[in-house]
Amino acid sequence: MSSSASVVLAVVVGVLCASGVVLLLERSLTRVMIGAALLGNGLNVLIIAMAGKSGRAPLLGGDGRDERAMSDPLPQVMILTAIVITFALTAFLLAMAYRSWQLHGHDEVQDDVDDRLVAARRASAEPQDTGADAEAEAEAEAAAAAGESGELRLVDGEPGPERGRS
Amino acid sequence: MSWSTSLLVPLPVVLPLLAAGIKLTIGPRLPYVHRVISVGTLALVLGVGIALLVLADQDGPQVAAIGGWQPPLGIALVADRLSALMIVVSSAVTLCVLVYSYGQGAADGEESLPLAVFHPTFLVLCAGVSNAFLAGDLFNLYVGFEILLVSSYVLLTLGGTSSRIRSGTTYVVVSILSSLLFLGAIGLVYGAAGSLNLADLAGRIDRLDGGIALVLEVALLSAFAIKAAVFPLSAWLPDSYPTAPAPVTAVFAGLLTKVGVYAMIRTETLLFPDTSVEDVLLVLSLLTMVVGILGAVAQTDVKRMLSFTLVSHIGYMVFGVALGNRLGLAGAVFYVVHHITVQTTLFLTAGMIERRAGSTSSERVGGLARTAPLVAVLFFLPAMNLAGIPPFSGFLGKVALIQAGVVDGTALAWVLVAGSVVTSLLTLYAVGKVWSRVFWRAPRVALPTADGPRGREGQDEVVGATIGGRTITTSTAMPVTMTGATVAMVVLGLAYTAAAGPLMRYSDRAAGELRDRQAYVQAVDPEMVRPVERAGAGNP
């Protein structure tokens, strides 16, 4: 493919992908969804740009016209498939954001279980001047995180057997 | 390559899709018909896979041009030795998991949900996996990935409970990002090489400028590395897999990451043989092994520990791919087969532990060796297999990879050899720790009886959330299909030891075919062979 893609397309790809990536880094799932959609569209434009020079509609006619003046039809076919797939993914993300909102009242992506356990452990290991409240909070946090991972703390209030270590 | 044999190639993709459609049409009625359709379809796919394996081994790669459109323009499905082997193993494993899920569904009283959603989606997942293994062009590989990923999103968030939505979010967002990376890479490959057919690309990429080829290789490998969970891109896996139902986690752990590994093998051998990226891959595989297994050692929950060993052992396969010599590839192929089976078995057994004791946390469960000896045996055998204790296939696979590393002989390869031995030992430590706590130690909490205590108030939902948002029915009577399927998987894992000779020779032939590239290209389109012949002759 001749590399004569227009500068405009390149700029559009850059802007779409950059804003898509920024949104993907957000905590809110709705913004992540918009980011994924933007990134997907940016990549579709990239494929268009990769098709080279635009030309006639790619229809095979019998009147002996030059086939080399046609646009490359393959990338257009690929983009059609990619658009459908991105659409399905967007719908799924939207459904997950809605379900998350139903369950938690927000659609923010939470830290994973280990992150929360480590944070809780660190908070409870801090010096005494943080007071009992912070420790209790950390305990509650650890219990919540541990519960989600299917772990169980045996007795209320007693430091878990594994929590105390390192 | 007669007309009749090439007709077999699309069947592993078409049959499960067709069956899924029929099942969706039937809806949640006629459970018996559903079972016959599902089991029959996957058994048929297994049969087709074995036929393809024999054909590919005897007559070379089997090619089907979809709709009669010839490559490179048309879509080709190619079953060479590697693809056929992957189809056989994946269909055997999915068949066992399907049978297992029937037992679990019946025991949890979730009859209507699995029939309506789980089983059609599961079949679509199988179709996607087959499509990825058979894809003869990059875009079809992308479509295969998407089919299996979208069905995996549905399976992972099945029931929509709080913990599944939380872990599913990470999984879905990371997977979408990897898909978009792959799509971008496809665009770049098309722009640079003007084709997406793998056989066609094999010749075209050789003629590209080295820098451009490097960009394409890194772009493709990054996308696959996310799917395969190679170290810096692996953090999503141990967080998202353990919350799903046991059969779902089992099939994810066994198959989905291996599809990524397969894609890495395919691109590294067919498109980019002998490139400078291989050293980077070696370092990454070492980090994957060591970081993964250190994570596993720190875990107390059986499922989470297994997820970390899964990440760790991906490193072994990447090690073989990165070495790129024939022995290394053969070892990687053997290890993929071994690891699909063993990892799936271990997650199925974890499901049985959960069923028996109500939890998979080794802080909570104890003394199962006495109360559930069969589960203990079914956990012990694959666990030792995973750790690489001599008679088992895990040992043989590791030996092959270590041999390949020694043959390679560079300093980096020796570091990798040492790293893989250490990882093997640490795996033994991790599974041994869980084994002694869950099976040997006296139980910390009394095992739940019919009306006995199940631990602290309010924890039932939390534990139950790991199976469909309901409290798990713990019982001493394990459904016979669950036990039977797990036993079958354990036996399959042991059979690799018995059949190690033929399997290793087959892996070696597959590796030879991968290194050669000619057979693949020749089978897809004889006219493409000429440019590939000058493979490795340097760039113009």
TrEMBL record, chain A:
The record, for Pfam families, names: Oxidored_q2
Q: Which InterPro entries match?
A: CPA3_antiporter_subunitC, NUOK/Mnh_C1-like
Residue ranges with Basic and acidic residues bias = 150-166
The source's superkingdom equals Bacteria
Topology of the protein relative to the lipid bilayer: Multi-pass membrane protein
Primary localisation category: membrane
Keyword flag Membrane: yes
**Annotated keywords:** Cell membrane, Membrane, Transmembrane, Transmembrane helix
Q: Where in the cell is it found?
A: Cell membrane
| Renumbered residue ranges of the record's region Disordered | 120-166
Sequence intervals crossing the membrane: 6-25, 32-52, 77-98
Q: Which family does the entry's similarity section mention?
A: Belongs to the CPA3 antiporters (TC 2.A.63) subunit C family.
Q: Which PANTHER family match?
A: ANTIPORTER SUBUNIT MNHC2-RELATED
Q: What is this protein called?
A: Na(+)/H(+) antiporter subunit C
TrEMBL record, chain B:
Regarding the membrane, this protein is recorded as:
Multi-pass membrane protein
Q: Which domain of life is it from?
A: Bacteria
Q: Does the keyword Electron transport apply?
A: no
Protein's cellular compartments? Cell membrane; Membrane
- Please give the InterPro entries that the UniProt record associates with this protein: CPA3_Na-H_Antiporter_D (IPR050586), NADH_UbQ_OxRdtase (IPR003918), ND/Mrp_TM (IPR001750)
Record-annotated membrane-spanning stretches:
6-24, 36-56, 82-103, 115-135, 141-159, 171-192, 212-237, 244-265, 280-298, 305-323, 329-353, 374-392, 412-431, 480-499
Pfam families from the xrefs? Proton_antipo_M (PF00361)
Keyword terms: Cell membrane, Membrane, Transmembrane, Transmembrane helix
Residues in NADH:quinone oxidoreductase/Mrp antiporter transmembrane domain copies: 135-422
Return the similarity comment.
Belongs to the CPA3 antiporters (TC 2.A.63) subunit D family.
**What NCBIfam families is this protein classified in?**
PRK12665.1
Protein name listed in UniProt: Na+/H+ antiporter subunit D
What is the organism of origin for this protein?
A: Patulibacter brassicae
